[in-house]
Write a structure and sequence with these properties.
Blueprint (H helix, E strand, L loop, with lengths): L1 E8 L5 E8 L7 E8 L5 E7 L6 E8 L5 E7 L9 E7 L5 E7 L8 E6 L4 E9 L9 E10 L4 E12 L8 E6 L5 E7 L4 E7 L5 E6 L6 E11 L4 E12 L2 E2 L4 E4 L1
Antiparallel strand pairs: 1-2, 2-3, 3-4, 5-6, 6-7, 7-8, 9-10, 10-11, 11-12, 13-14, 14-15, 15-16, 17-18, 18-19, 18-20
Length: about 260
Amino acid sequence: ITFVRQAIFCDDSTIVIGGSVDFDTVFENKKMMVLRVDTLGNLITFKNYGFANSIDYFSQITQTYDKGFSICGSTEFGHPLDYGYNIIFKLDSSGNQQWYRKWGRNDADNGCISILNLFDSTLLVSSRRPTQADVWPVNNRISNLQKITYNNTLVWDQDYGTIQNNYYDYLTGISVDMQLSDSTILCIRHRTQAYYPIFLLINNNGETIWEREHRILIYGSHLYTRATFVPADNGFVFSGLFQPCFGWGASGRQDIFVI
């Protein structure tokens, strides 16, 4: 079973598709998958990355300035509680693995969310950082960014926001959306309460320049928020799905929102 999550258009006019693939029927041997096709859809290469008898989830892929790629996600490999560690793989232009970096707590669930190739030939990786051991129903997380060189050297490690307590933690992380021409970086966090987005602009050293909160209504969830830069006025357009909630339950409806 194959799950496709992302496709990027490369500078050689090929298309690279990332996702996850299961190699057995009990879902205990899942690997990150990267396949490359030409513009007609003909397969050029198919490769998978991960570890034996491990569940390895793909989150995102980015092309690097050395014509290679880097992918991020999570892996259960070596975790004493079968939770996930953060992991990134650096690949060459043919998709061959050059190195991987694995980190995270041994007593909690970790996992990378997104990865961005920066102008200075480094990688910016976002994740949810656990602040304590996972004990039901407490599952505290804080947004984290790490800047890493192409040679696997950590440049800086920075947390953002306040600790969020939510068992369903997939929205309490931070994603790196884009780097602007002045080398600043736009990120999007989600606060657990009502799941509304927080837009964060940082400099290349990870220092916060500004932070803004936006929501359509107080009672509702803002899902899958993404950003687009508007060159005409140096502004942004943020869009996603809004799910109104009434009382404790969701309305069952999802609308498009644009800011």
